[in-house]
Amino acid sequence: MPKSISHELYRRLPQLGECLERADVRPLLARYPRAVVLNGVRAVIAELRERIAAEAMHEREIDAAILTLPASAQRWIEEHERPSLRRVINATGVILQTNLGRAPLSESAVEQIVSVARGYCNLEFDLQSGHRGQRGAEVERLLLQALELEGGEHAALIVNNCAAATFLALNTVAEGGEVIVSRGELVEIGGGFRVPEILRKSGATLREVGTTNRTRIEDYAAAIGAETRAILRVHRSNFAIVGFTEEAPLNELVALGREAAVPVIDDQGTGCMVALDEYELPRQHSLRDSMQAGATIVCASGDKLLGGPQCGLVVGHAGSIKNLRQNPLYRALRVDKLTYAALEATLRAYTSGVPETIPAIRMLAMDADEIRARCEACVDALSAAESVTAHVVACESVVGGGTTPGTALPSFAVALGHADFSEDEFAAALRALDPPVIGRVGDGRVLLDLRTVFAEDDSLLIAQLREAIESLHTKRAR
Ligand SMILES: *Cc1c(COP(=O)(O)O)cnc(C)c1O
Questions:
Q1: 301 lines ligand 1 (CB under 6 A)
Q2: Side-chain half-sphere of 459: how many Cα atoms within 13 Å?
Q3: For ligand 1, atom 6: residue with the closest CA
Q4: Chain center to CA of 358
C-alpha cells in the first residue's frame, strides 16, 4: 500500500479525547475510573494502528471497528482489570489441592473475615478494661478447647503456616544444639519444605538416626548426648513407606525424651481434628493424638484437614509455648486479623460439634451415590451437544495436601470427550472460562470429579461446560 493511502487510513482513526466525548462511551465512564477507560480506548486504537500498518484493514473495516470501539474497549478493560487471583471451580477431586488454595473456608469463616476486614476490630484491645489486649488470645483458648486440653498446663500459638511453626519451634528449642531425626523422616513435603534445610536454617544441627525404612527407639536413645536439644518427629505427609518398616511410636519418643529431659517436637502437619475412619479412610494420627501422646510441642497446618485459613498451629506445654512467643522471630511469623477471624470461626465448628459446616470435612463425608446422581444430572443436561461425549465414570478422589498418602475415596466423574479436539484442548477451553473449570486429563478424556465441586455450583458448572463446548464449536467453524 502506498504511504499516502495508509496515511489516509490512519487519519480515519479518532483522537483519544474525541472518543471520551462519545455518548456511547459514557456508560464505560460511569462504570470504571476515567484512567481505566482511557487505557482501554488507547489499547483499542493502538491495535487498529497495528492492523493498518500490517495492511490488514480497509476503510470500511476501520469505520466498522470505530463504531464498535466502546464494546472493544469494554472487553479490553474486563480482561485487564480483573483480579489475577480468581475463583476457580475445582473438579479435580483433590479436596486439599495446594495449587488451588487448599481448604475452602466455611460460610461462617468467610462472614467473620468480611466483618473484621471492613472496619476496625479489637485485635489487640481488651474491650472490658479498655487497655491493650493480647492478639489471638481467644483463638488460642478455643484451639485448646477443641483439643480438650487444659489451659494453664498447655498453651497455643498461631503463626503463618506449619513451616513457620516448625521453624520457630526448632529455633527456640534447639539453636546451637542437635536435633535427632529419623532418616525415614528427612522428607520434602512439597513447595520446597525440606526438613533438613529448615532444620539447618533454624540454627540446629541435624543428628540422623536409623535407616530410611526402619528406625527403632534404641537408635534415638543411642544418639542422645550433651548437645541434644530436641527429638523431632515429622509426619511423612506425601508418601508412604510400605513393606519392611519400623518406626518408634510417638509415646515411646516422649518417654525417652522425658527420661533424658529432651523435648519432643512433633510436626504433625495435617491438623486433623476428626476421626478419619468415620469417613472410611484409614485412621490417622490426629492433632489430639499427638498431644495425648505427650509431645512437648506439636505443629500443624491450618489449611489442611482442619479446613481453615493458611496458618500454623503450635500447641504444647505452656512453658515451651511461652518461650516461642518470646522469641523475636515470632514477631516476623505472626498472622493478621483476617487469619484469626477465619481460624476462630473454623475452630468453633469443632467446639460446637458441627464440623461438617467446614467444606473440606463435608467433601470427605460426601456419599459416592450422591456424587453419581449429580454427575448423571450433569450428563443429561449436556447430552444435546453434538461432537461431544459425556459419560458418568467411577473414579477416585483423594484428600491431598500431603494428608493421607496412598489412600483414596470412591467417587464419580463426568468424563468429557470431543470428536475434533484433544483432551488437552478441551481442558484448556475449560480453563479459559470465567470462572475457570479445572479437571483431570487422561485416557483421551477430561474427568470432572464432582466431589470437590460445591453442589450449589452444579448449575453454574453445567452453564460453563455449555459455554466451553460452544467456544470449541466456534473455534472449529473458523
Ligand atoms: C504440609 C506440611 C508442612 C507444611 O505446612 P504449611 O502449612 O504448608 O507450611 C509441614 N510439615 C508437615 C508434616 C506437613 O504435612
A1: yes
A2: 1
A3: 162
A4: 14
* Omega before residue 435 within 30° of 0, cis: yes
Alpha helix segments (H runs only) across 204-358? 217-223, 250-260, 287-292, 318-326, 328-333, 337-351
Q: What is the band of 281 on the pLDDT scale with cuts at 50, 70, 90?
A: confident
- Joined grid coordinates for residue 463: 452453564
Residues 391, 414: contact at Cβ < 8 Å? yes
Q: What's the rounded Cα separation, in Å, for the pair 372 and 393? A: 8
Residues 144 and 315: their CA atoms lie apart, in Å, by: 8
Residue matched to cell numbers 479525547: 17
Nearest residue (CA) to ligand 1, atom 14: 269
* Three cell numbers written together for 205: 544441627
Is 167 near ligand 1, meaning CB less than 6 Å away? Answer: no
Total residue length of the chain: 478
Cell digits of residue 224: 542422645
Please tell me if the CB atom of residue 72 comes closer than 6 angstroms to any atom of ligand 1.
Answer: no
* 25, 28, 32, 38: CA torsion to nearest 10: -30
Helices (H), ranges, 55-193: 59-67, 69-81, 107-118, 137-146, 162-174
Enumerate the β-bridge partners of residue 299: 267, 314
**Secondary structure element (H or E) that encloses residue 370, with its range:** helix 368-382
pTM of the model: 0.92
Is ligand 1 within 6 A of the CB of residue 163? yes
pLDDT tens readout for residues 55-88: 888 889 999 999 999 999 999 999 999 999 999 9
